[in-house]
């Protein structure tokens, strides 16, 4: 009788202990983690791809998709967010957005994205996949929203913003509606650019979750994918992946609606990654070029990519100098 009681008591305490342990590890998974950057790739503890950068006040944010597969194809179930005030000390904020947070989305296609701030909210534009009423799959663009740049983000529409059917008159492939980049012009008009093979643009309404007017095909020389729009002074810059394996090229205009004048290569092939997705932002007065390569070994490659950061410089005439990708990154000595 006594022995049975002791055994039951031991089982009870073991069960309580296991519960406490699992709650502790869950809360660790859901807590921000911090680390110091010391060279490129910037993030080494996970494979990270398709960086988008956002500056809010004194904080630099990087959003990326996570490559979780074994290097044989894209397996990207979720996006990640990192923040830093000095580009050396970084915080990873847990679980900002997953592919399955879009109820209409299928598969594990947490592809390239960009987050942009407007009216106190943060809009997360993503590339994902959609199935139409006939069951045909095609890449699509969705938008999620949050009150904080680190989320958690929620689907802002409940439907895709752009689907493959909207662009088949220009490009009859199922993967051209990817890689959104959003730019808000000085007059407050927001524009969405995206594409693969063909670049497109469309106006966004003030609410940032509805389009306005027609889709405009954007004429760019040798466009592959991954457009990024930024402005410096009076010039607009549209940089994009070109060729395959990809380099980054760019064009300039004095109008967000173009025409865009091709200015050449901005970044060379990115090591052992076929893709070279990038973002350009200014932070505390300096310009930065954020991109990915396959630099984290042993698995690094086209489907196990890693985000890097280097400085970006301009020539006196406003054109951009070719980026020098470095192992040292912003930290002087390679480690
Ligand atoms: O990560 C999947 C796709 O690869 C992105 O959407 C493209 O820009 C390329 O980097």
TrEMBL record:
Keywords: Carbohydrate metabolism, Glycosidase, Hydrolase, Polysaccharide degradation, Signal, Xylan degradation. One of its GO terms (biological process) is xylan catabolic process. This is Family 43 glycosylhydrolase. Belongs to the glycosyl hydrolase 43 family. SUPFAM superfamilies: Arabinanase/levansucrase/invertase (SSF75005). PANTHER family: ENDO-1,4-BETA-XYLANASE, PUTATIVE (AFU_ORTHOLOGUE AFUA_2G04480)-RELATED. One of its GO terms (molecular function) is hydrolase activity, hydrolyzing O-glycosyl compounds. Residues 1-20 form the signal peptide. The keyword Transmembrane does not apply. The record marks 179 as: Important for catalytic activity, responsible for pKa modulation of the active site Glu and correct orientation of both the proton donor and substrate. The lineage of its organism: Bacteria, Pseudomonadati, Bacteroidota, Sphingobacteriia, Sphingobacteriales. Gene3D superfamilies: Glycosyl hydrolase domain, family 43 (2.115.10.20). Pfam families: Glyco_hydro_43. The active site is at residues 50, 225.
